[in-house]
Amino acid sequence: MPIIYKYYCNAGCHFLIKSHGLPFMCLKLDGREEILPHPIENSRAKKLTGKNLDELFKEGRIIFKPNRICLECLQREKNCKCERPKLLEISKLKGATCPKCRKGKILKSLAGVS
Ligand SMILES: [Zn+2]
Ligand SMILES: [Zn+2]
Questions:
Q1: Bridge partners of 48?
Q2: Model's pTM, two decimal places?
Q3: How much distance in Å is there from the Cα of 103 to the middle of ligand 2?
C-alpha cells in the first residue's frame, strides 16, 4: 500500500498534485514503452507479451521511471502534449517555486494511503 503525498502551493493558487513518489513500471515493447499500471502490472504485462513479470525482468524489459510532471502544462508526463515539455520529477517539486502562479512555494504533505 503506497503512501500518497500531495504537493501543493502555499500561495493558495490551487496547484495540487498527488503522487506516491514511487517510480512506475514500464515494459519495453517493440521500441515503445508501455506503462504497467499499479496494481495490475503482472496481468497487463502478460496480456501484452504472454510472459510474466519475472521473465520480463530477466530479459531486462522492465524499467522503472520516475513520476514526472510537465511544468509547462502542469500535466503528468503521460498526459502532456507539449512540443517542448519541461519535465520535473514530482518528488522534486517540494520547495520549488510554484509552476502555476510562480509566486508560492510547493509544500508536501501526507494525503493518505492508496
Ligand atoms: Zn506539457
Ligand atoms: Zn501557486
A1: none
A2: 0.74
A3: 6
Q: Note the pLDDT tens digit of each residue in 10-45.
A: 999 999 999 877 788 999 999 999 999 888 999 999
The Å distance, Cα 92 to ligand 2 centre, comes to 16
Residue 69 Cα to ligand 1 middle (Å): 8
For residues 35 and 24, the answer to whether their CB atoms sit within 8 Å is yes
Question: Cell numbers of 72, please?
Answer: 509547462
Residue 60 has a pLDDT of 96
* Residue 67 backbone zone (phi > 0: left; psi -120 to 50: alpha; other: beta): beta
Chain segment 39-96, per-residue pLDDT in tens: 899 999 999 999 999 999 999 999 998 989 999 999 998 899 999 999 999 999 999 9
Residues 6+ apart with CB under 8 A from 68: 76, 77, 87, 88, 89, 90
Distance, CA 6 to ligand 2 centroid (Å)? 14
Instruction: With H, G, I as helix, E, B as strand and everything else as coil, classify residue 52.
Output: coil
